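so the lab meeting is tmrw and i was supposed to have these ready like two days ago... anyway. pasting both below. for each one the top line is the aa sequence and the line under it is the structure tokens. i havent really looked at them closely yet so no promises
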Amino acid sequence: MTVRALVVDDSPVVRKAFRYHLAIYGVRGIDEAENAFQGMALFRERAPNLIILDLMMPESNGITSRELFDTIKRESPSTPIIIVSSIPYEKVRASFVGEGALDFIIKPFNQFSFDRARRKLSTIFPEFSSPRNR
């Protein structure tokens, strides 16, 4: 299966970092959105099969990160969502994972913090089992 990813984060640096980490595992179809409103449009237009979603973004055109998460879970419940956040609280992480997020990564992240999510992704997408472009 070809992985089509959508990275929704208001930080261009974070989007670039995730693009890099995804490309290591051969993901080439990567769309980016800088807010939840753009993320909603790209989610519905492109139907990605992996979402990386920043939890702490300003509301845009009435859409919050939480609303985007809920919409994705309702409209495409099997699509894995990795939540990215600067909120290090276990209660928040447990809540999102309990509601269906595949993983919860605390910012700032690196190769090692991404690796837990990568291992989970490898059970869904074989591409994530071994790096392609180190």
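ok protien two:
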Amino acid sequence: MARNKSFLLDTHIFIWWLQSNKHLTTSVKKILSDTNNTIYISVVTVWEMFIKIEKGKLRIPRPLDGVIKKTGFSVLPITLAHVFHLPEYKKSHKDPFDRMLVAQSQVEKLALITQDEKLKQYKVKILT
């Protein structure tokens, strides 16, 4: 029986998955397609996507909750434990969404799937 692995998606990876974007690596596509894996998208990712939609920088199918449900991915809420990790990253990274994803990855012990090179500086497992 295959061992269940858990992953957290950076916002751009989730958007690329929805758009079948060619920038997704074969290994990431394989991870996201494997039903033995647990794939999380953070509430912060949904929040960031809504901001991009409102600014006209992102177009994706609606309603978003239905789109998320269709992927089969799990939604990771933001907890106080996640928030209490944020001060560690404030000086070195300005993007609050990225900082929260790193905090969630550390607290929940999830590998973060991202192509953001800046996030490799943190003590979190990164997959590209």
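from a quick look at the 2nd one: Helices lie at 11-18, 26-33, 43-54, 64-71, 80-85, 96-108. Strands lie at 6-9, 38-42, 74-76, 111-113, 126-127. will dig more after coffe
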